[in-house]
Please model this.
Amino acid sequence: MRLDKFISSQRTDLSRNDVKALVKKGLVTVDGKKAKKSDMQIDENTACVQVSGEEISYRKFIYLMLNKPQGVVCSTKEGACPTVIDIIPEKYRREGLFPAGRLDKDTEGFVLLTDDGQLAHRMLSPKSHVPKRYFVRLEKPYEQGYAEAFESGMTIDGGEKCLPAEFIPLDKENECEVVLHEGKFHQVKRMFEALGNKVIYLKRIMIGALPLDEALALGEVKEIADITPLEQR
Model:
C-alpha cells in the first residue's frame, strides 16, 4: 500500500497532501527511518509507521464503544446538533465510520461505531435478534404485570407487534432494566406508554454480551479489542 494512502486511511484528519507535506518536513518515519517519498510502497501489516512520533497501526476495521451523552445524535451528517462522529477524538476518525444502530437524542449509553459494514448488517438484521439491555427510570412505579406484558410480546401504538422482551425490576420501584431483541422506533418509551407509564431516563448498558464499560464517562470512547461478545445472543 502507498504510504500516503495508508496514513490517510487510518487518520481521516490527514489528507494525502497533508502526508506529503509531513514527509517533506521529515516528520514521517517507516521502520525507524525518515520516509523520502509519500508514495513509497509499504507492507501495511508489518511496517512501523510514525507521524510526528506517534505510531499509526493498521486496522482493517475499527470498533469503538462510545458512551453517548444526551443531546448528541446517531448520525454521520452535520446538523443543528453534534453527532457521535463529532465528539470522538480525531485519532479514531476514519473514512466510512458510522454508528451501527441508533439511540434517541435524549438517550444515553452504548453506541457501537465501526467501519465494518458486514458486522453491522449481521447485528442489525431482524433475523439476528442481538439483545440490547437498557436501564430505565420511570415517571411512576412499575406494576406487577409489567414482566408478563413484556414477555407476551406487546402491541404498541400504531398496532406494531413487538417481539417478546424481558422486564427486570430493580430495588427502586420506578427503576428497571429492559432487554430487547429488536429496535423499533422509540420502542422502550412506546412500550411503557402502552402500559400507562412514561420513561424519564433511558440508557443502553449492553449490546449482545458486551456491557458498557462503567469506567467510560459520558462522551468518552474506547476501542474494542474483542468483538465476539457483540453478536452473542
Remarks:
- Helices lie at 3-10, 16-24, 117-124, 146-152, 187-194.
- The chain has a mean pLDDT of 93.
